[in-house]
Amino acid sequence: MSAPDDMTADLGARPTPPAPADTGYSATVLGSHWIQRPEGDGEETLVAPPPDRVEGTVLRFGPGVTAAVAHRTHRTLPALPPAPAPPRRGLRRHTLPVLVLLCVLAFLAWQRLGPSVQVRSVAVAVRPAVLPCDGTANVVAVVGTNGRPGTLTYRWTRNDGTQSGVLREVVARDQRQARLTLRWTFEGEGRRMARAEVEILSPAHLTADARFTYDCG
């Protein structure tokens, strides 16, 4: 029995299979490293290449690391000891200026609050040595000091029985000498020997005198 010329004539049109629903899935084209090889029964199978490396029981194809490798690679480094603190150079830098300032303040305080004037020497001179009629003698006492500020107390005594009251002389800082002056005036005719004495009462007790002649004949 021969087959009809058109075997599909009686079968009618074949129904078109429905389109798959849109599930977000799409086929992925396999890379070139996947090879299709025909098997003996005519079917095709996908054959994968040998793995790049073996990590334990996990086979890896291509790039990528396992959690074990990542754990071994990114270990936490041990904590380093803290760096030593830098030396305090600011305090050392300001030490010398502070010491200089303290020395200056101490020197100024010593000058102001230190020992007062001290008398080192005293000498008396008179001019002229021979006084003419109705003349005035200038008697000068030169007192040497230590250059400290302060006040000298003194008095004059003449050999005619006259004595001055207590007098005061203020000396300044760095003043090494104080000049104390007595003016003694004579009148009338006659001749006599005159003597004037200065007595330092404080800060030390010292005396000195000078002699001259009044000559009016």
Write the layout of secondary structure elements.
Blueprint: E1 35-38, E2 44-47, E3 53-55, E4 58-60, H1 67-73, H2 89-113, E5 119-127, E6 130-131, E7 136-145, E8 150-158, E9 167-171, E10 177-185, E11 190-202, E12 206-216
Parallel strand pairs: 6-12
Antiparallel strand pairs: 1-2, 3-4, 5-7, 7-10, 8-9, 8-11, 11-12
Describe the protein:
Helices cover 15% and strands 38% of the residues. Among the domains are: 35-64, no CATH class; 119-216, Immunoglobulins (Immunoglobulin-like, Sandwich), CATH 2.60.40. A hairpin with an 8-residue loop joins strand 8 (150-158) and strand 9 (167-171). The protein has a five-stranded mixed β-sheet with strand order 6-12-11-8-9, with no helix packed on it. A three-stranded antiparallel β-sheet has the order 5-7-10, with no helix packed on it. It has helices at residues 67-73, 89-113; strands at residues 35-38, 44-47, 53-55, 58-60, 119-127, 130-131, 136-145, 150-158, 167-171, 177-185, 190-202, 206-216. The protein is built from two helices and twelve strands. The model is unreliable at 1-13 and 22-36 (pLDDT under 50). It has 217 residues and is mainly beta.
